[in-house]
Amino acid sequence: MPAYLRDIYSWAYLTPWLADWLDRQVVVQAILWGNAQRLISDVLAEVKAGDRVFQPAAVYGDFSRQVAVKIGGNGQLEVRDIAPLQVDLTRRKLADLPQAQSRAAMRQIRMRRRQML
């Protein structure tokens, strides 16, 4: 786990009881001053059925679910995150959508870091 995530953002992304509370669309809507669905709609306008979409980080609310529904069963959504809690939250949200997967990204980050050294 990167130090910045542990030291600065642990309250928001690594605390289970708070993450469960933050992972509600109404909370996301409030945090984004009522613009969450407008922003999601902008993304959905660029996505079509059958697309393959890579989402490099988990997000609170139902963004990932809306993308997975839009791409449909012939598409693929892959969500990666370095925080196991966020991976688990996303898996739960997407459990009934076989075209969507959530995976931990730490292994890939470590491998790339070694290649850069």
In short:
The protein is of the alpha/beta class. The chain has a single domain, classed as Rossmann fold. Helices cover about 55% and strands about 15% of the residues.
- Helicity, as a percent range: 40-55%
Shape: globular
Number of domains: 1
Beta strands, count:
3
Rg value: 15 Å
Distance between the termini: 19 Å
At the first level of CATH, the class is: Alpha Beta
User: What is the helix/strand order?
Assistant: HHHHHEHEHEH
For the biggest sheet, the summary is: 3 strands, parallel
Query: Order of strands in the sheet with the most strands?
Result: 1-2-3
CATH fold assignment? Rossmann fold
Q: Supply the CATH architecture.
A: 3-Layer(aba) Sandwich
- Regions with pLDDT < 50 over 5+ consecutive residues? none
Q: So how many helices?
A: 8
**How would you state the average pLDDT, rounded?**
91
**Structural class, judged by helices and strands?**
alpha/beta
User: What share of the residues does DSSP label as strand, in percent?
Assistant: 5-15%
